[in-house]
Amino acid sequence: MATLSFNPTRIPHKPISKTASFSKPSEITFHFSPKSSNKHVKPLHFQSNIITKLPVSTQEEVEIENEDYEEDDPTAEMIYLDPETDPDSIVEWELDFCSRPILDDRRKKIWELVVCDDSLSLQFTKYFPNNVINSITLKDAIVSISEDLGVPLPERIRFFRSQMQTIITKACKEIGIKPIPSKRCISLLLWLEERYETVYTRHPGFQKGATPLLALDNPFPMELPDNLFGEKWAFVQLPFSAVREEIASLETRFVFGASLDLDLLGIEIDDKTLIPGLAVASSRAEPLAAWMNGLEVCAIEADTSRACLILSVGIATRYVYATYMKTPVTTAEAEAWEAAKKACGGLHFLAIQDDLDSDDCVGFWLLLDLPPPPV
């Protein structure tokens, strides 16, 4: 059994955690299935690189949809609201405002505003020249979306680019919207990946090989704040059926944490498939979970070169969440955990408990480690 712990300088006696043994990873199939659009707007079809295999019948359907999509004008803009959705129910948007690998008539990069909600019931895109990029333009565009679609302004807007934080924050606050810097913009990130393949590359001004103007930050991990320290941790696995139960408990038992829209993602996983996760135990589990709940937890990574776990939160914050004694055994365990996460398409979880032997969680976060978008 490996000796694993949080930063040992914070713990008088280094605990021995229970590390689950990992079975051989099995590839997981993901089908992204957003809500269907009306006849004027073709339904989105995500083509994420975390899709591993599609049944033959589904592949044929995808090819047919893609053939239809080829007829669309890549210079066209989109404004869509699912007619079956109650506009008042959309209280949170996901937003990206950034340049694209497309040049206009002046040979300058075009910027684009892309907005959706987490269920893709709301979809909006609009191109802008690079000489009007400011908070006023963005504020006016947000108000215009609300007015044109007949939806109220959202309570919150999530965004994932740190370089745009000043502009987005200012625009949101001027119209009473709470800006949330977070990489938990799963629907938006997948939509951008889909748009790169089906829209941007077909645009007459597309510049192949162009470097993204605002690349995502991946800063060096910092020391974990005192209030986020736990006492013990362990690599664990849960059957997918148990993961679903924990997700359901977020509402029924008012547990701290966050979920993902598994129906939207169309994740096809057998109930018995083991999902990798990290269990954290603390005698102050409830306040610890409460603090974690305000951090926009995005992903956990096992860094075998530094013999530590990295916690990613917000849009550009990374913490050394835990450390362990580097040995061949612990390295193999960390590598197996990462392999299991990769086999699940990046799906993993964080559970906070009073004790590692407890059957209940005080906090549960379902996480999806996605690569950065190509734009």
Task: Give an overview in words.
The chain has 375 residues and is of the alpha/beta class. It folds into two domains: 4-28 and 217-368, no CATH class; 31-202, Nucleotidyltransferase, domain 5. Helices cover 25% and strands 27% of the residues. It is built from eight helices and 18 strands. The chain has helices spanning 56-69, 135-149, 165-174, 186-198, 240-252, 262-265, 285-293, 328-343; strands at residues 4-5, 29-30, 78-81, 92-103, 109-116, 122-128, 156-159, 178-181, 222-223, 232-239, 256-258, 267-268, 274-281, 297-303, 308-313, 317-324, 347-353, 363-368. The strands form four sheets. It has a six-stranded mixed beta sheet with strand order 3-6-5-4-7-8, with helices on both faces. A hairpin with a 5-residue loop joins strand 4 (92-103) and strand 5 (109-116). Helix 2 (135-149) crosses helix 3 (165-174). The longest helix has 16 residues, at 328-343. It is globular. It starts with a strand and ends in a 7-residue tail after the last strand. InterPro entries: Tab2-like, Tab2-like_C, Tab2-like_N. Residues 93-195 form the RNA-binding protein Tab2-like N-terminal domain. GO terms for molecular function: RNA binding.
